[in-house]
What we know:
Number of helices: 13
Helix content: 25-40%
Low-confidence stretches: 1-17
Strand content: 15-25%
Oligomer: single chain
Structural class: alpha/beta
Distance between the termini: 27 Å
Mean pLDDT: 90
Bound molecules: cytidine-5'-triphosphate
Largest sheet: 8 strands, mixed
Amino acid sequence: MRIPTRTRRSNLDNEKTVTDLSDRNIILGVTGGIAAYKSAELVRLLKKAGATVQVVMTPDATRFIGPLTLGTLSEREVLMEIFPENESGSWTKHVSLGLWADLFVVAPATAQTVGKLAHGLCDSMLTAVALAARCPILVCPAMDHDMFVHPATQSNLETLEEYGYVVMPPDRGELASGLVGQGRLPEPEAIVERIARELQQRIEACEDLVGMKVLVTAGPTRESIDPVRFLTNHSSGKMGFALAIAARLRGAHVVLVSGPSDLPSPTGVERIDVTTANEMYQAVIRHRDADVVIMAAAVADYTTESTASSKIKKEGDGDLVLTLHRTRDILAELGRSKEPEQTLVGFALETDNEIDNARRKIAEKNLDLIALNNPKDKGAAFRHDTNRVRLIDRDGAVEDLGTKSKDDIANLILDRVVSIRLVGEVSE
Ligand code: CTP
């Protein structure tokens, strides 16, 4: 179900659309950097958008901005200590806050706090809330340029993304040190917009795959002939990556096994890069316990008998004869050991007798659903941002999804997966 964007007209400025965060509980984490002065404006804008704002500060942040200012603007007492002053009070506030919030934004996030979050350290109220929180966490790093580009900081930020945190990159410009570079906290308006977008995306995604492990394969495989040549196909990985992103947004733990592809790693997805069909087989088998497996990869059906260790040179005018051996059919292997509660989805790439071939594949490989695409169709299959897909179920029924963006097709496939699983649960 798509919910319309939550925006409303400002009473003050009829021309401007103001982000609506009414009914939203936002925790603002402020850490000890010069950009902490911007948090006053951030609280003001969040309040103006209708959010309830709870400020949590690290002790160092108070050197840059007073809790009195942020407490007054947010109309709530600022939290700093993990243990209450009155020792008979409750010390589990970090847990209840993490459950109360719709979103936790850390702005500015210093290199120190980014490092602590990446390593699960919780020596303050702010880091403890982050560890306990079930809501999305938006991290806005702000620091000196060299600290930001340092491999340690970059690696910590990558770790955060792998854990599902959303990182809003800092702006470029003049920094407190007098140097010019990347490290400035984005303007409060941009942060509020980003918060609204993150929340909106989550509403749209419905989070109906929470608690599920979804394994997606994507891209082509490559079978080497010699050190400079290989056999492959035209798959770009776009369809599989779109499925992985959609499943992640719907709350699943996603493992993406990808053949060679230039596509960037989707946030919060566990990506495993492989090259050959055999490597893909090994990676998939390691994750065969997934609740849902979607094989979108174009796996090579044949591999070379052996890979020459040196470049194969021309010999006279004669032909070169390559002997190719069958690879293992990964999906058929999963189908043979399929558990009743597991959902297996295949793709069928067909140019002729499409429906018959797809129906045969669903039966032979013991699948729940097959997504049929034909590279001869306009805007379908390889390299396009769109795809034309027909879904065929175990009864052979065909549903034409039409030609749509791969993101939309991914969500329609996941809708079917969810309904197949619901029907399965009811009939058990
Ligand atoms: N597949 C697989 N392992 C292989 C070959 C294919 O797991 N070695 C999977 C694909 O990822 C896809 C499905 O099987 O989900 C169908 O792939 P497709 O290439 O359409 O068909 P094949 O089964 O390979 O048969 P053919 O090439 O004869 O059409």
